[in-house]
Amino acid sequence: MGKTVMVIDDSSSFRTVVALALKRVGYDVVEASDGQDATRKLGGQAIDLLVCDVNMPGMDGLTFVRQLRTLPRHGRTPVVMLTTETSEAKKAEGRAAGANAWITKPFQPSKLVELVNSFFKE
């Protein structure tokens, strides 16, 4: 497959759950603990899709997505927000920031994998 997904969440156990689900179906996974960590790790790697939490210390997910969209290399990289946030206002803010999809925690790993796969259908 050769696709790399970055998982951004301040919970290491949550990152592990997401990473395992994605690795099981053949994705390479890079983990980041918040938006600042993700920004540092984006520099040297080709990332094909990002799975990002909203509420994180340091740089939150929506701020990170807004910054990501200003980078020439990642202006169109798909972003899936995976968060406990359920309000329509937050979802609208996510869309405005540039998020492509929104999944609410708790979630089914199989549904996340299905969604991620949908971005790579030819």
Automatic annotation (TrEMBL):
The entry's keywords: Phosphoprotein
Superkingdom of origin organism: Bacteria
Gene3D superfamilies listed in its UniProt record: 3.40.50.2300
Keyword Disulfide bond part of the UniProt annotation: no
Protein name: Response regulator
UniProt modified residues of type 4-aspartylphosphate: D53
Pfam family of the protein (one): Response_reg
Species of the source: Leptothrix discophora
InterPro entries reported in the protein's UniProt record: Bact_response_regulator, CheY-like_superfamily, Sig_transdc_resp-reg_receiver
Keyword match Phosphoprotein: yes
Domain Response regulatory: 4-120
